[in-house]
Give the backbone structure.
Amino acid sequence: MTHRMVTAVLALIGFFVSLYLWLWKLGLMGPLVCTTGGCETVQLSEYAVFFGVPVALWGVLGFTSLLVVSLAGLQNRWVEQRGPTVLLAVLSAIGVGFVGYLTYLEAAVIHAWCQWCLVCAGLVTIIFLTSLVTLRTWPAVRAQAQRRGPS
Amino acid sequence: MAGRVNMKLFYGVLVAIAVVGVAAVWTASRSAGADTTQLLDAPVPVNASAFPGYVMGSDAAPVEIVEYADFTCGACGTFTILQGPDIKQRLVATGLARLRFRAFALNQSSLLPMHAADCAGEQGRFWEMHDQLMFQQRDWMSASRPMRMIRDYARDVGLDLDAYDRCMEDGRFMNRIIATRDEISGMNIHQTPTFDIGQIRVSGAISYDSIKVLVEKATAQTQAGGSE
């Protein structure tokens, strides 16, 4: 179940990056650390809010759900089940679609890059690809989990 | 057994990431200075004109380097520290180019430092204050009361502090800063630092060598245009 461990680690990193951006949006952080120079432009743009909720908060919620599902999938009850991986693939697919849209906005509409947004985009894309690969090779992954026994 | 060891390692990694994450967020929140909140009440511009910027160098210089920068932008600070001295000594002082600085406020927290620089400019000390703000950027940006530290810079560069305080209290340049920001945004500039050198626009903390090449190119274009 290495892929669920990888997903949990990446989701936790993504959670803190999103949390940082969300707290900044709430005015609780100091100046935004940004080497690309465009983070504030992106974060202050009209596109930084989606359905009335800051995009960064969507990130916090998204990475939290990925973290919860991946940790649940590592428990004895679920470790040999395909369901958690399917759920991770579905959730991360939604995430990939969302960050794809946001990255398009940065490139074509806002004309500025936010490094933290790109980090989140990269993380969710890796999670999605990992889930896909795991689903395609599921019999081998399951057999490996059975050999290792309960954790 | 191997599974148990792996899981222990895995949960150890998760806890380590969580500790680092909480520490990083906590540290970042500590730099949210009490007096940065007043920036959120910055006035809306009323019939203000954009400011063309502060110029260093000769009017006779064949090329003008226009820098669009923000005092809170890390890349701008890095650029000023690493490339600023070369640009001043090797391009501006030699008459090869002149430098025009246009303040481009990226966010609300950029406004007061810019205003402080303008108040210094009112007393003919803009570039001294500019250097203080850029060179000490990490210090004042992470301070709990950044404007108090910037006031110390004002004293260090030799400003009349009473006049500086009046200028800051009046907010007399705030509308101009916002009008300038709006004008620069309308020029399709969205990040800092950005440079216009002749007809060429580049963004990022580029090297002195790159700027020199662009200045030479712009000079050649100017001379070719003049000889036609």
User: Anything to note?
Assistant: Chain A touches chain B at residues 5, 8-9, 12-13, 15-16, 19-20, 23-24, 27-38, 40-41, 44, 74, 110-113, 148-151 (CB under 8 Å). Chain A is about 70% helix and 5% strand. The beta strands of chain A are 49-50, 53-54. The longest strand of chain A covers residues 49-50.
